[in-house]
Amino acid sequence: MTNHNLYLRLVGDRFEKAAEQPFLITPGRLPLLFSELHRMSGLVAARLQQLNVGPGDRVMVQVAKSPESVLVYLACLRVGAIYIPLNTAYTPAEVSYFIEDAKPQLFICQPGERENLVARSKAGNVPHTRTLGSEGDGDLLIDVERLSPEVPVVEREADDLAAILYTSGTTGRSKGAMLSHHNLSSNAQVLHRYWQWQDRQDVLLHALPVFHVHGLFVALHCALLGQSTVHFLARFNPDQIIDCLPDCTVMMGVPTFYTRLLNDARLTDQLCAKMRLFISGSAPLLAETHRQFEQRTGFRILERYGMTEAGMIASNPYQGDRLAGTVGYPLPGVSVRIADNHGNELPRGETGVLELKGPNVFKGYWQMPEKTAREFRQGGWFISGDNAVMDQTGRISIVGRARDLIISGGYNIYPKEIEAEIDAIPGVGESAVIGLPHEDFGEVAAAIVVKDGSRQLGEQQIIEPLQGRLARFKQPKLVIFVDELPRNTMGKVQKAELRETYKASVNRP
Ligand code: MLC
Ligand code: AMP
């Protein structure tokens, strides 16, 4: 049997004879070298085995971005475990849900969160809880050097799961998108070719979080396939970005990265002299940002489109026109069609829901077979939930969302989840959470609230109860009180009307 384990493609023993080339360069730390990657992921894999983590077991991870966190990911692949990264902004209350749902064999959290999370982990019957800090500290890796790194790469079938990434649902309940070894390796190889990755020469500027598709899979997989050195920054920090840019050839970011860079006078064409490619995705890039960036640096940002359930779906061409406001063409091997609400394909030029098929499309939502079935059409077309239009040449523009979804700085916020929390606050009659335009984050959540008259309510009485219940990025940046919510004749709240009324209400903080 062929071993389809993604680890073999990404690392294997490909780099053992590599010169001492850095893989991850993290400020203030010694670089992690390519030549050490197999041995070090072997040590972490040996630790996982000591904790009885084996094929098919889930390993849930809520830790700071660090070279060690990448080693944990690679070690999970190596032992055949399923990697489940969580946003570090999630509160313990949110994490409890994920533990309950995924039933991990091992939960790894930040040392500072140990007290908060061990009890929740125990309540969820998780056999092992360990900690890992941003410097590799914590108890996960204590004495790991004493173990043998000779851990074989477990055989995996193409459809075996490599990772589960949680994505919020329209019902407010998060769903775990199951991604197989083949889903991830096929997508990585396509991107590596499509973006003409320059093996051993490209240097990647990486300031994205590593708990989402963008920073974890798209960026790191391309770098591993291309044996690229990566400037691995904990977060988007303009000073560090400006420092690193002269050494780098590729940057991947959400649109907020580009608008923030444009607000920095230090961004010049000389600073980007070595750059080859700027890529944007995860949220719509404004045509104005595209234009200004080209004017300032001479680079036309390459915009691509993807989602948790399918990795990357479409991209502007590497060579050829990178058109602002479009996400380019379906990637090789991916089929895209625009359909009406019943799954009938629409002629080119008409707006409808984007549906897709291909080796990148996930295996379904973890333990939600009915939900999964509802998201697919006959013939295996996955319903993306994005509204799009295709021109005569097949070029795609995303024109909106069929789902009630807010994308803020590249993070998804599902209004239903926030509304449920607000509606539970004493004194609230009902609420509607909408996305409003925001210079920095593109969109932010705003809550439109109707009081029930039973007590005095101000913005603080709405926001305070959300602390500890919802991650900060999900909390409304603005609360507006109204007498009633606008509804149509069917009784449905008219969110489009609310968005129009309040579109100028949020300014840059
Ligand atoms: C931080 N905050 C946010 C926020 N990020 N609020 C709304 N939306 C966000 N995205 C909050 C903080 O909690 C803080 O709140 C306040 O805003 C100011 O934070 P900051 O210091 O300015 O934020 P910063 O750390 O600079 O982060 C902003 C960011 C970051 C845009 C750089 O959010 C980010 O890296 N986003 C990338 C997300 C991503 O990788 N998405 C890919 C998903 S994959 P307070 O109240 O505490 O002050 C996907 C598929 C695909 O979508 O196609 O790629
Ligand atoms: P997530 O579920 O977090 O992976 O987010 C995926 C969603 O991000 C998609 O369904 C789109 O709505 C949005 N998205 C990703 N890339 C783009 C893009 N280039 N333009 C517009 N929306 C995008």
Can you walk through the features of this model?
The chain is α/β, with parallel strands linked by helices and 509 residues long. Among the domains are: 6-197, ANL, N-terminal domain (Rossmann fold, 3-Layer(aba) Sandwich); 406-501, GMP Synthetase, Chain A, domain 3 (2-Layer Sandwich). 27% of the residues lie in helices and 24% in strands. It has helices spanning 6-10, 34-50, 67-79, 92-102, 114-123, 181-194, 213-225, 238-244, 255-262, 287-297, 369-374, 415-423, 459-463, 495-501, and strands at 22-25, 32-33, 58-62, 82-85, 106-109, 128-131, 161-167, 175-180, 203-206, 229-232, 250-253, 277-280, 302-307, 311-315, 329-330, 335-339, 352-357, 382-390, 396-401, 406-408, 411-413, 428-438, 442-451, 478-482. A 9-stranded mixed β-sheet has the order 2-1-10-9-11-12-13-14-15. The protein has a 4-stranded parallel β-sheet with strand order 4-3-5-6, sandwiched between helices. Strands 16-17-18-19 form a 4-stranded antiparallel β-sheet, with no helix packed on it. Helix 2 crosses helix 3 (67-79). It starts with 5 loop residues before the first helix and ends in an 8-residue tail after the last helix. Bound molecules: malonyl-coenzyme A and adenosine monophosphate.
Keywords:
binds malonyl-coenzyme A, four-stranded parallel sheet, alpha/beta, GMP Synthetase, Chain A, domain 3, 24% strand, Rossmann fold, 509 residues, nine-stranded mixed sheet, binds adenosine monophosphate
Measured on Cα atoms, how large is the radius of gyration?
23 Å
| Name of the level-1 CATH class of the domain at 6-197 | Alpha Beta
Alpha-beta content class: alpha/beta
Mean pLDDT: 96
CATH topology label of the domain at 6-197? Rossmann fold
Per the principal axes of the C-alpha atoms, what is the gross shape?
globular
Strand elements, count: 24
Q: Strands across the major sheet, in which order?
A: 2-1-10-9-11-12-13-14-15
Q: Give the low-pLDDT segments.
A: none
